[in-house]
Amino acid sequence: DEFKYPVKEMDAAAFATLITDFNHLKTVLEEAETAKDENIGRFSEELDSKVEEISKELSELKREANAEMILDIDADRESVIAYMTDLTEKVNTQKVQAKNIADYQNIFGVSVSEFQDLAEVATDVELKRSLWISDIEFDKHMESWAESLFDQIDMASMDEIVQKYVKLCVKLERGLPPNQVVPKFKEKVDNYKNMLPVINALLNKSMKPRHWDKIMDIIGQFDREDNFTLQKILDMKAPDFSEEIAKVSVEATQESALEELLVKVTSKWDDICFSCVAYKETKDTFVLGSIEEITTALEDSQVTMATIMSSRFVAGIRTEVEKVEKSLNLFGETLDEWLNVQKNWMYLESIFSAPDIQRQLPTEAKQFFAVDKQYKDIMRKTRENDNALKAGTTPGYLASFQKASETLDRIQKNLEEYLETKRMAFPRFYFLSNDELLEILAQTKNVQAVQPHMSKCFDGIKSLDFGDDPKSVDIYAMFSGEGERVGLGKNLKARGNVEQWLSAVEAAMVTSLKRQGKDSYLSYPKEERTKWVLKQPAQIVIAVSQIYWCRGVVNALESSSPVENMHQWLESNRSDLKDMTVVVRGHLTSLHRKIIAALITIDVHARDITEELYNEKTESTNDFNWQMQLRYYWNDEEDVVYIRQTNSMFTYAYEYLGAQSRLVVTPMTDRCYMTLTGAMHLKL
After folding, report:
1. If 0-12 CB within 10 Å is exposed, 13-18 middle and 19+ buried, where does residue 174 land?
2. pLDDT tens digit string along 236-246?
3. pTM of the entire structure?
């Protein structure tokens, strides 16, 4: 009514009667609370009488649990189990009653009875019941195992069951008083426990017929095919030979592990093949490609085989292991010889493919082509059947490669001797490698073949001038790297053996430079120096200029007034330098500019020496200040240039130098010259 909420009439009538019911409930609760203490006291007395009753029954149970028949070894097992089952039911009943009493005591708030004897009796009864039940169960297991086919025994299940009873035996020994039943049961369990290793050893999957033969030698002969059960093993007293059987089983396991390693090695080589690649893009000629993977696999396999062979368990599979090891060793030897032959063959093939070499070395060419045919045949077969191990162990290959290697080594030795004769005939060939010399000898009809190698044979000659005709054999001149051209006279031809006409070139070089040197020496005093330098080869300019400078110094030192005349010669040197400075500033070709620049460098050094001699007032040609200098002299009687320094003297060799630039000459340079000429004089 207060909130103006509509209510049905039926609900309102029910609400009106609710007050009467609530008051009645309240009255009942008050009466119960008043009688509470009286009821708790009465119920507690009943519970106490129940506790005393249970205690009496518990004493009776304890007495029954200690009956002699329970631990009597001669008692009937079925009777004892029935007796223990009845006791167990009584104990369970007591447990239920004890729990109910405890629950009521908790509700009433009184002290709870613990019934400690009940727990002890329950444990004792359970242990004794387990003893007899387990004894029957284990006998059934033993019977089942004994009748099982040996190869079908579940070893994991057997081990689990035996271990369970082993633990129970420990529990029984601790929880029960001394008796004869537990030891008897434990003896059965222990017997099987000790037999497990033997059974496990005989069930080893790695056991082969040869291992079973050893087992039969130990325990006696038996037929494994005809209903072979565990009982047969037990009848033959196999457990008595546990150590010997275990040894055979371990041997089988280790041999199996070795066999697995052996299988890995052999199966690996099923997929390893040679890579045969075309040689110089030819169709029918092949060579081995990269063998890095093969050599790595071979090394790994040989290490594995060494491990297998070093094992003390290899005896049973020694024959197979030695067969594989022998195959790998043969492959390794063959591969080494193969690669050696291939390397030498590839080197010599390019040499003997040249007709000129075949003509000059007919015997060696014949021997090479015999090896060449054999090698190409082997490579074609290898390309068709490229399995590395099969190809590398093909019967006869090792001997063939060894013989081919010996032949190629002999050919190379003869080739070296042949090249040595060429070098002896023309010593400048020592400046060339074997490959470079062979490149020349392989093209004796092509005189242009020597051009790329001229700068190695002659330091100053870059190339020879054969004229405009590329097939010409006439040699007209030599070119330096700077572009200087020096004629070599007439009738010089590139005919015959290359060492012969190159020797002729060497002689023509010396003759031509000597002739031009004399002509320049004679023309020097007759022409203006500034014009003279533009008509001569670079090295002749330097040499003749040094001869006349040296002569001027000697004339001054041998005159009656050495110091005064030396001063005049110094002024003359300065004048020559000024003239050269004017020339070098003019319009010159690149070659002439290099020649004059080199001459100025030498003239500056000559002027410095002259100035030093003047300042030191040197008056004799025997003075060390003059003797220590590098001096050039022309011998008019012999037309020979001598070069002297201190007590050393050398003849100018006319080796063509070209128009090379000159470094500034310093006192250190002079000391180096003096050291070198002294060493050459002493032939050190």
Report:
1. exposed
2. 777 777 888 88
3. 0.63
